[in-house]
Give the backbone structure.
Amino acid sequence: MNRIPIILDGDPGHDDAIAWVLANASPALEIKAVTTCCGNQTIEKTTYNAQRICTLIDLHVPTAKGRRRPLVSEPIIAPTVHGESGLDGPALPEPDFELVPMTAVELMAKVLRESEEPVTLVPTGPLTNVAALLIAHPELKANIRQISLMGGGVQYGNWTPAAEFNILVDPEAAKIVFESGIPIIMAGLDVTEKALIKPYDFERIRAVGNPVAKVVAEWLDFFYQFHIKMGYEGAPVHDAVAVAALIHPEIMDMKELYVEVETEGDFCKGATIADFRGSKGKAPNAKVIMGIDRDAFADLLVEAAKAYGEVTK
Ligand code: RIB
Ligand code: CA
């Protein structure tokens, strides 16, 4: 099987962490590098979390710290969702590797230059690093196969009524990415709020029994605490959908749409506006995921947990 070379860029974050567990377990993907961005927590915390996650799942690839703040906007963090550490809940190992001595943009550019084939970017946080890469190295656009991102929502937001968190944190970066001409798979709230991992799925994962499975179950326990108060039937594991879209697109419904990002306004800053009627006369710039087979998605996470070893009772 030809493995898809990818770069994981995120702001772990419980759902980023689970997305990385899924990616690392998939034989269809080859993770070339990991980069971090500020979003759920400060860049220092998301980077420390990234190193701990990668240590836990034995993902030892070049890893670099990203920009400490969005391109233009003031940082927004989400301690109410992910806790003060950005990854509250289970104890994690201390990092067993050092970051590479370069920025996230420099590492992304290096991987793109050295790869024998175009690379897929999988950003699951604000798009700050990806936009900075496109600004600094426009010549490397052709080395990017596609961008499978978690962000946005063409019907509603979650951090404001109009905007989803990742886009709102850095709308200028998102605008650059959506206008780049690079093929985009957009896992927005339209699908991720349907990608609910339910308490009985937590127990299926916990029952796998290996150390990674136990931590994933405890990440879900913690992540769900925020959502249960809002009446969710499960934890929306937003970021893992951006990974699942690469390995099992057949469990999803995607719609090719022209999407633009609002960077101004008191009410709609950070909104991702899809042109369903084609009234702008522009070619689609994104495959927007609108639906998912929830049970199949949950099974994907259970199977990924098993990839880290099945513990016989
Ligand atoms: O809105 C959900 C997104 O914001 C997810 O990527 C989550 O990790 C946070 O970054
Ligand atoms: Ca994230």
